[in-house]
Amino acid sequence: MSILEHLLIPDQPFAEKDEFNIQFLNAKIEAIACVYKKLILVLNHVTQECITYNFDENIYPITGINPYLLNIKNTHSHIEDSDINLMWKYLEVINKAFIGTRHQRDDAIYFSVDFVYLNSKKIDACCTKVIPYQYDKDDNLLVTLCIIEPINFAGSAILRKHDLKTKTTSIYNTNTKQFEHEANPYLSEVECNILHLSGQGIKEKDIAKQLNMTLPKLKRIKTLIFEKLNVCSVSEAIYISYKRGYLDAMPKK
To answer: Which CATH number is 189-243's, of 2.70.180.20, 1.10.10.10, 3.40.50.300, 3.40.50.720?
Structure first.
């Protein structure tokens, strides 16, 4: 079973199990996946089934080439165990947000999970967008959609909540178990220059002189970089910045 199939919510009190046309919905999603070359999973909470439409050739090295079947064993083998454990927790958070009455839930949100693929030569990471697609008249969730696409990303798996009304994004904090506003994750030109020069083996005092700043200011900026990227060393900061596209190239010593 795919880990994403645990987004299937069991034991919802459906009054009428045939009140929506799943065949029409599946045909519609298949057409969208085919036209836009996407990998989309349709999670049917009524039948507890997961249907795959995979027309994104860029992700075939991980998922397999069958557009209607995921290679689950291969897909999971490329995800780090620590990320698998995180994703279990994230899916529980997502499911809780999707159930309840209209007054209890927010229909203007969806979630995304960024995670890294290990030992894959063609795909570094993926983003899985989880969207509550259709509810019945009794506020039971009928269908959830998962859209999976390759991205540039490095680090531990991250759960984000996207609010379509406010056009804001927040990140789930596993310590506080709360969503927190996502600060600007991008690096400024000065921050990028500091990482480039540090990666070339230049000493801090020389970097400060070259960038026309005091040494204490340089140290403060480096601390802010570490906090922004959630890392503990310059080498980690350089690697993650490069993988996320903040740096154009890895510095050469």
So the answer is: 1.10.10.10
